[in-house]
Q: What sequence folds into this?
C-alpha cells in the first residue's frame, strides 16, 4: 500500500507544496473554534461568541468559492497571498478590537472579512490534478489529501482551544493567523507545481454551480457533512450522559482515524470499478453505518461503531472529488472543489444544529435520527447524480477497457 504513496511524491516539488499546504490548512479548523473560545472567556458567555464565530463560518462559505474562482482565472501565485493578507489583517483587527474592548459591531465586521481565507485543500488537489493525469495516481493523491484534511481537523481545534485556555484568550486565533501567513507564503512560493491557468470556454463565465451535475455533488456533501456534524454532537452528548465527557474526544478521534485508514486503503486499492458504482457504494456504506448508532449502549461500543463508520467517509470524499475533477471544465476546477468542501462545512454546521435540537428533546439517541435521515438523502442524491454524470467521467480507469 505504501509503495503507491512513495511513488506519488516522486514528482519534483510534491513534498514541498504538501508540507506548506498542511501548515496553511490547519488554521481553517482553528479560527472558528478559536474565536468562540476567545470571546466566551472575554464575554463570559456563548451568545456573542457563537454569533461572531458563525459570522466567520458563513463568510468563509460564501467568500471561499469566490476566491477560488479568481484563482482559476488568474493563478494561485497571484491570488493566494493577497487573499491571505486580507484574512490575516482582519483576524488581527478582530483580536485587537477584543483586547481593547472595542465596539461589538467591529467583531462581526472583522470576522466577516476574515472569511477571505483561501481554501488550501482545494488548491492542493488542483496541483495534484495538474501533476498527474493517470486515474490511479489521482485516486492515490486525492486519498492522501483526504487523510491530511482529517489530520488537520483533529489537530487544529484541540490546539486552538488549548492555546486560548492555557495562555491567553487571543492565543488560539493569533497562532492560527501566524500559521496561515507562513503556510500560504510557502505554498505560493512553490511555483513549479502551480497549475497553469486554463483558457475558459466561450459562455463559461458563470459559476460552476449554474449547471450540470455539480449542484448535486455539493448537496450530497452537505448531507455527508450533516452526518459528521451530528456524530460530533451525539458523541459529546452520549459521553456526557454517562458522566465520562472526556471520552468524547477519544470517540471522535477514532472516527477521524477510521476515515484516515479508509482513505489510505482506498487510495492504494485498484478496483477497476467505475466512479458511478463507487459513488453509490461508498455513500451507501456511509449511510448504512449510521444505523448501529441506534443500538449503542456504552462508550466502548460507540467508539467501535464510530471507527467503522469513519472507514467509508474519506472514500466518499475521494470519489466525489474525482468526479468533480472529471466533470467540471478545467478552467473552473479550483472553484468546483472549493464548493464541494464548502458544502461539507455547511453540512457539519447544519448537522450540529439539528442534532442539538433533537438531543435536547429526545436525548443522545434522538440525534441519531438526523444522521440516518442525512444518510438516506445522501444515497438518493448519489443515485440521482449517476444519471447526470457526463459519460467520460464515469470511467475510473479507461485504460482497463471499462
A:
Amino acid at each position: 500500500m505504501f509503495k503507491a504513496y512513495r511513488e506519488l511524491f516522486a514528482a519534483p516539488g510534491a513534498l514541498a507544496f504538501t508540507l506548506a499546504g498542511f501548515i496553511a490548512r490547519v488554521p481553517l479548523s482553528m479560527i472558528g473554534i478559536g474565536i468562540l473560545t476567545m470571546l466566551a472567556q472575554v464575554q463570559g458567555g456563548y451568545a456573542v461568541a457563537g454569533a461572531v464565530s458563525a459570522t466567520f463560518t458563513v463568510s468563509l462559505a460564501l467568500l471561499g468559492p469566490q476566491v477560488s474562482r479568481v484563482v482559476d482565472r488568474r493563478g494561485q501565485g497571484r491570488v493566494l497571498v493577497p487573499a491571505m493578507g486580507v484574512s490575516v489583517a482582519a483576524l488581527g483587527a478582530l483580536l485587537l478590537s477584543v483586547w481593547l474592548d472595542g465596539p461589538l459591531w467591529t467583531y462581526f465586521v472583522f470576522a466577516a472579512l476574515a472569511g477571505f481565507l483561501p481554501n488550501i485543500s482545494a488548491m492542493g488537489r488542483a496541483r495534484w490534478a495538474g501533476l498527474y493525469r493517470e486515474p490511479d495516481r489521482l485516486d492515490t493523491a486525492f486519498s492522501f489529501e483526504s487523510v491530511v484534511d482529517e489530520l488537520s481537523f483533529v489537530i487544529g481545534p484541540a490546539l486552538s482551544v488549548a492555546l486560548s485556555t492555557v495562555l491567553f484568550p487571543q492565543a488560539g486565533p493569533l497562532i492560527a493567523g501566524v500559521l496561515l501567513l507562513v503556510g500560504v507564503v510557502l505554498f505560493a512560493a512553490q511555483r513549479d507545481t502551480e497549475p497553469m491557468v486554463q483558457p475558459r470556454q466561450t459562455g463559461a463565465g458563470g459559476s460552476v454551480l449554474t449547471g450540470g451535475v455539480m449542484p448535486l455533488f455539493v448537496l450530497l456533501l452537505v448531507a455527508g457533512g450533516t452526518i459528521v456534524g451530528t456524530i460530533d454532537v451525539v458523541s459529546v452528548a452520549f459521553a456526557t450522559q454517562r458522566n465520562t465527557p472526556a471520552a468524547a474526544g477519544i470517540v471522535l478521534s477514532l472516527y477521524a482515524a477510521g476515515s484516515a485508514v479508509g482513505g489510505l486503503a482506498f487510495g492504494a486499492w485498484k478496483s477497476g470499478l467505475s466512479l458511478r458504482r463507487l459513488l453509490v457504494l461508498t455513500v451507501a456504506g456511509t449511510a448504512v453505518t449510521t444505523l448501529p448508532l441506534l443500538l449503542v449502549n456504552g462508550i466502548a461500543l460507540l467508539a467501535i461503531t464510530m471507527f467503522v463508520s469513519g472507514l467509508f467517509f474519506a472514500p466518499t470524499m475521494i470519489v466525489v472529488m474525482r468526479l468533480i475533477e472529471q466533470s467540471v471544465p478545467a478552467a473552473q476546477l479550483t472553484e468546483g472543489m472549493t464548493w464541494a468542501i464548502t458544502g461539507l462545512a455547511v453540512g457539519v454546521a447544519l448537522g450540529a444544529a439539528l442534532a442539538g435540537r433533537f438531543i435536547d428533546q429526545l436525548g443522545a439517541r434522538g440525534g441519531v435520527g438526523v444522521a440516518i435521515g442525512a444518510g438516506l438523502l445522501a444515497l438518493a442524491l448519489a443515485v440521482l447524480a449517476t444519471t447526470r454524470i457526463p459519460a467520460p467521467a464515469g470511467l475510473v480507469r479507461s485504460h482497463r477497457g471499462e
